[in-house]
Amino acid sequence: MRSEEKKTCPTPNMTQNTSPLRSISTTSIHTMALDGTLNVNSLFTFAAFIGIALNPADPKNSLVSAAACSATSAAGKHFVEAHVYSFTAFLFSSLIASGLKLAIRTGDKTRGTNVEMHGGGHVNLRLLQSGIVAAAAGTIFGCAFLMVALVDLVQIKLGVLGCWGWHTVAALCPLVILVPSALLVYVFLLFYAFIR
């Protein structure tokens, strides 16, 4: 009779588990996404750091011959501010992504599973999603401020946009079109990944 009772005992349905703390098989995907965020942020952080080291007040940094088209000191100050904001945003995003990776791997090791090699981990989904959104927001703001800094850099080197110089317009058009377009696609795919 005991064997029959064991056979008729219903098995728990894992798909009906609605707890925010559960085992998922896509931890490796989240880890790879965080790795990609860290790699991109590292490159952009280095670029922002190089931009901060540039002295916009140095006359050697300008290729403009006409004094009327030369950028003012305000553009140089704005250039430095945008680079600092960009550096801060990328650093914020990288720290959040690193913390999430550490939380995932620490949680995996405390449960005695080798999910770092095989994928799947016991993580808090709400915390993971919130962290990914925060890291993505940092990357988005960092890209936006870096784009603003590049606009200032073009005006410092090639002349202000008000003069409508050919080189200035040719450098700024791809920048102000492609970067915002890529950011919109990034935001759309980010929300799609959470609502699907």
Order of helices and strands: HEHHHEHH
Helix percent reads: over 70%
Assess the beta-strand content as a share of residues: under 5%
Q: Termini separation (Å)?
A: 46 Å
| Beta strand count | 2
Rounded to an integer in angstroms, the radius of gyration calculated over CA atoms is: 24 Å
Instruction: Give average pLDDT, whole number.
Output: 76
Broad shape: elongated
Q: Which structural class do you get from the secondary structure elements?
A: mainly alpha
Spans of at least 5 consecutive residues with low confidence: 1-25, 112-120
Structural write-up:
The chain has 196 residues and is mainly alpha-helical. It has a two-stranded antiparallel sheet. The chain contains six helices and two strands. The protein is elongated, with a radius of gyration of 24 Å. It has helices at 2-8, 27-53, 73-110, 115-118, 125-158, 166-195; strands spanning 21-24, 121-124.
Topology record:
Elements: H1 2-8, E1 21-24, H2 27-53, H3 73-110, H4 115-118, E2 121-124, H5 125-158, H6 166-195
Antiparallel strand pairs: 1-2
